[in-house]
Amino acid sequence: MLIVPEAAVADLITPEASFDAVEAVFAAMAKGEAYNFPVVREAIGYADALYGFKSGFDRAGLHLGLKSGGYWPGNAAKGLTNHQSTVFLFDPDTGRPTAVVGGNLLTALRTAAASSVSIKHLARPDAKILGMIGAGHQSAFQMRAAVRQRAFEKVVGWNYHPEMLSRLQETADELGLPFEAVEPAQLGAEADVIIAITSSPAASLLDAHVRPGTHLACMGTDTKGKQEVDPKILARASVFTDEVAQSVTIGEAQHAVAQGLIAEGDIVEIGRVINGDHPGRTSAEEITLFDGTGVGLQDLAVAAAVVERAAAEGKAIDVEF
Ligand code: NAD
To answer: Against a cut of 0.85, is the pTM above it?
Structure first.
C-alpha cells in the first residue's frame, strides 16, 4: 500500500491535472460509468466536530474508495486546518487497500477544478470580468482555476467579512489582474462569471443583481441550510450540477426546489454537456448556473492522479499492509 502524506501532495499534482481528472469523472458519471454512494455526515458530539465519508466507484477509471474527514472548529487554535480530509483508495478487483493520500490540498484543487470545468463548458466565450463572492480559504484556489478558462481582464469581489477581502486582492495581484471590492449589486452588474464560495446561511446575491448572459458557479453550498444566491435566479437560469441527487438535497438548488421554483428534472448533469449529450449554453443572453456540491468521485479522481505520479517518481511511502 502506498502512502502520500499531505505535505508531499503539492509537488505531485497541478491545477491542470486536477482539471483533467475532474472533467473526466463528471463525464463518466453522466454516462453511468461512475457513481457516488450516499454521503455520511454526522455531528459526533465531541470537539464540536462534524465527521463523515464521501465515497464511490468509477468503473471507467477503476477508482474505488472514500474521502473521510470533516470540520474541527478548534483546530485553528492548535495551528491546524479546521477542515481535515484523507483519501483511501482500494483495488476494485480485490478490495485490498492500495493508497492513503492527504486530502486537504486535494479538496481545494478538486473544488476549484469543478467550477473551472463549468466555466469552460458554460460561460460565454467573451467573458471579461470575474466576480468573486467569498474570500475564505477556497476562494484563492477558485480564482486561480477560473482565470485559466477565459481571458479575464478584471476581478470584482464582495465578502460578508470585508476584512478578509485582502485574500482576493493578493490572489488577483499574483495573477496580474486588477481587483476592485464592490457591493453585490455592482458585482452582478459587472461580472460575466460569478463564483460564490462561502458558508453563508442566506442569499447574498439577489435576482435583481444578475444580468442576462452571466454564468454562476455556486460552490459553497454543500450542506442542508447553506445558501448563497436568491432561488429566483435558478428559476431564470439553466441549472447544471455535478450530481442531481446532491444538488436537490444539499446543494444550492435545495431552496429553489423546496419553493417549487424549479423541479429536479430541470437540473442537468454537467457531464452530459462534457459528453456532447446536452448543448449547454445556447445563447449569449442565457444565464447558466452550476451547482457544485462536491462529490466523492472528484476526490478519488485527484487522489488517484497523485498516487500514479508518486509511484512513477518513487515519492510514495510503500508499506506492507
Ligand atoms: P472559510 O471558513 O475559509 O471561509 C468562509 C467564507 O464564508 C468566507 O468568505 C466568509 O466571509 C463567508 N461567510 C461566513 N459566514 C458568512 C455569513 N453568515 N454570510 C455570508 N458569508 C459568510 O471556508 P472555505 O474553506 O473557503 O469554504 C467556503 C465554503 O465552501 C464552505 O461552505 C465549505 O463547506 C464549502 N466547500 C464546498 C466544496 C464543494 O465541493 N462544493 C468544497 C470545499 C468547501
So the answer is: yes
